């Protein structure tokens, strides 16, 4: 008989709330008492056990594994990643890519190229930590080495988080409860404070503010993006974040990047937006499914970025006037 | 021959996942075949045939698909052996969340769908809890937060299983899954083997065609609901 069977219920349920949740999910009613778990199970009618869908020894073994698993999740807060290395494969014609790119934590790499050129494919290769097993033959190293299989497949502490364009919310929850659900499964010490921080950060990134009671399904595109970026920066376990276009979504792109960099993330963004592309440290140029080049952002480009930002601010002002129902009649003065 | 039982609710993507994995295993030189067990009708056998995979179909009709599965799985194994297969997938649809088609000593896979919502893993019974591998599909169309929460819930629902994200459309994640499946122990015979858990029970007049409603027709294995506003009634 396993050790857990002799644990009294009151001790067990107070110390391990996961066991209570598990027994609840079996449809069994359990109450704290001095009775050991094994005896309690033995006293249950066989019919209840049949309804629950697990035999008594299976229930005991499951509870034991569950306690171990939760302990492992609590202490394995996800070792950080210092660098990610991308080793080139081949493009659509089979021509080898001459590329080996190392990215450090806190660095932003942009991926640029025409529509359909293979930007999303590159993101997908990084997402699955490809080892020559995808159509491009690319390989990804973590801290200079091939990640072991366990690391590649541990699901809820995945190395890579992906914020894609075509995502949906399936649950119908308010923002606070939704992020709270995530905080709970990340086993954050003070979930309420963390949730408030994520919501405040998201509101900081978007022009249209939302409250904690707003249902996630009612958020606009920009608000959704802002919430997902704030969550990825503050709450996600993944040290690598992939973003598929943030332009046109009403998100403060500069602050979004600062937030992710501050979280010591390795960030890849697929983008056509000069404000983002020039803000990154380097950009990967994709052509015909392959990496055609890597450009480091030059001092001249950084200077231009400041000009482009001023132009963008002027445009934003015009948008804001439109929103408020005003006319755009005074001559537009572009900053120099 | 290796036997792999694959189960999951309707439309979660079992067929797509098997197709992706079978393609990878086939490339490694394994002869892979599929037995498709369904309720009323299926056209998935054509999808398998198109990929050149030997396929046999069983339709449970009015019988519980799980019961149909267990009374036919030995014959399916024999079919696979006659076809000279190295690896046989049995694909069966779990309809009631209480389904339990897994056999002791035979690698069991449960496919769950991230679109079903983060509370679903808790609601699925032995089909998920007693599986060796849990495969999560459609992860690409839900938010990153829901993906993480869903994976966490799957881990709580079956802390012993290895879990995988697998995209049935693009095949992303299929290679890790294929590697895990290829390590399954061989099954030479099922004679005397046991299910991991009893299947959902169903022996009452309605199982065999009764249509009339009323207390007098409720005989055999009948279970009544309990309502909070009524005091306990002794039968």
TrEMBL record, chain A:
| Pfam families to which the protein is assigned, alphabetical | ABC_tran (PF00005)
Q: Spell out the SMART domains in the cross-references.
A: AAA
The ABC transporter domain is annotated at 71-314
**Thylakoid keyword on record:** no
Q: Which keywords does the record carry?
A: ATP-binding, Nucleotide-binding, Transport
Mind listing the GO molecular function terms for this protein?
A: ATP binding; ATP hydrolysis activity
Please identify the protein, giving its name as recorded: Putative ABC transporter ATP-binding protein
Organism name: Imhoffiella purpurea
User: What broad taxonomic lineage does this protein's source fall under?
Assistant: Bacteria, Pseudomonadati, Pseudomonadota, Gammaproteobacteria, Chromatiales
From TrEMBL, chain B:
GO-annotated molecular function: GTPase activity; nickel cation binding; zinc ion binding
Taking every annotated instance into account, which residue ranges of this chain make up the domain CobW/HypB/UreG nucleotide-binding? 4-162
Q: Which InterPro entries match?
A: CobW/HypB/UreG_nucleotide-bd, Hyd_mat_HypB, P-loop_NTPase
Q: Which GO terms describe its biological process?
A: protein maturation
Instruction: Please indicate which superkingdom the organism of origin belongs to.
Output: Bacteria
Q: What is this protein called?
A: Hydrogenase maturation factor HypB
Q: Which organism is it from?
A: Imhoffiella purpurea
Starting at the broadest rank, the lineage of the source organism is: Bacteria, Pseudomonadati, Pseudomonadota, Gammaproteobacteria, Chromatiales
């Amino acid at each position: 008989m396993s050790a857990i069977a002799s644990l009294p219920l009151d001790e067990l349920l107070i110390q391990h709330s996961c066991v209570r949740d598990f027994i609840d999910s079996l449809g069994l009613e359990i109450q704290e008492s001095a009775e050991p778990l094994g005896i309690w199970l033995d006293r249950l009618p066989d019919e209840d056990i049949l309804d629950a869908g697990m035999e008594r020894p299976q229930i005991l073994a499951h509870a034991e594994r569950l306690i171990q698993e939760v302990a492992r999740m609590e202490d394995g807060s996800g070792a950080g990643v210092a660098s990610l290395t991308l080793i080139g494969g081949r493009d659509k014609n089979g021509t080898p890519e001459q590329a080996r790119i190392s990215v450090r934590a806190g660095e932003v790499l942009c991926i640029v190229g025409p529509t359909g050129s293979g930007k999303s494919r590159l993101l997908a290769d990084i997402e699955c930590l490809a080892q020559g097993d995808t159509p491009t033959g690319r390989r990804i190293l973590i801290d200079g080495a091939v990640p072991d299989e366990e690391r590649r497949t541990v699901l809820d502490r995945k190395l890579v988080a992906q914020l894609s364009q075509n995502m949906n919310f399936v649950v119908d929850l308010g923002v606070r409860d939704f992020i709270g659900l995530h905080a709970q499964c990340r086993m954050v010490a003070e979930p309420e404070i963390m949730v408030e921080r994520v919501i405040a950060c998201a509101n900081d990134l978007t022009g249209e503010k939302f409250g904690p009671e707003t249902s996630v399904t009612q958020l606009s595109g920009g608000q959704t993006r802002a919430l997902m970026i704030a969550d990825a920066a503050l709450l996600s376990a993944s040290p690598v974040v992939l973003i598929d276009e943030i332009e046109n979504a009403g998100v403060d792109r500069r602050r979004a990047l600062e937030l992710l960099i501050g979280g010591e993330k390795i960030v890849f963004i697929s983008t056509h937006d000069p404000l983002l592309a020039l803000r990154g440290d380097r950009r990967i140029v994709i052509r015909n499914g392959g990496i055609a080049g890597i450009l480091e952002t030059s001092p001249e480009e950084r200077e231009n970025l400041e000009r482009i930002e001023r132009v963008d601010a002027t445009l934003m002002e015009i948008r804001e006037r439109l929103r408020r129902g005003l006319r755009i009649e005074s001559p537009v003065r572009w900053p120099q | 021959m290796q036997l792999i039982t694959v189960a999951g609710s309707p439309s979660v993507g079992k067929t797509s996942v098997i197709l992706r994995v079978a393609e990878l295993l086939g490339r490694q030189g394994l002869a892979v075949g599929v037995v498709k067990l369904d309720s009323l009708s299926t056209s998935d056998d054509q999808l398998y045939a198109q990929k050149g995979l030997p396929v046999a179909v069983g339709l449970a009709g009015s019988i519980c698909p799980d019961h149909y599965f267990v009374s036919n799985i030995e014959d399916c194994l024999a079919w696979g052996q006659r076809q000279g297969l190295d690896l046989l997938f049995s694909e069966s649809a779990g309809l009631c969340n209480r389904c339990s088609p897994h056999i002791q000593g035979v690698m069991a896979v449960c496919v769950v769908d991230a679109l079903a919502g983060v509370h679903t893993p808790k609601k699925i019974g032995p089909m998920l809890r007693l599986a060796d591998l849990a495969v999560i599909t459609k992860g690409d169309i839900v938010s990153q937060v829901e993906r993480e929460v869903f994976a966490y819930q799957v881990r709580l629902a079956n802390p012993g299983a290895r879990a995988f994200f697998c995209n049935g459309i693009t095949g992303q994640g299929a290679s890790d899954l294929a590697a895990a499946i290829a390590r399954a122990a061989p099954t030479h015979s099922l004679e005397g083997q046991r299910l991991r858990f009893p299947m959902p029970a169903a022996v009452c007049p309605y199982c065999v065609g009764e249509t009339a409603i009323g207390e007098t027709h409720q005989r055999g294995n009948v279970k009544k609901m309990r309502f909070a506003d009524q005091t306990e009634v002794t039968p």
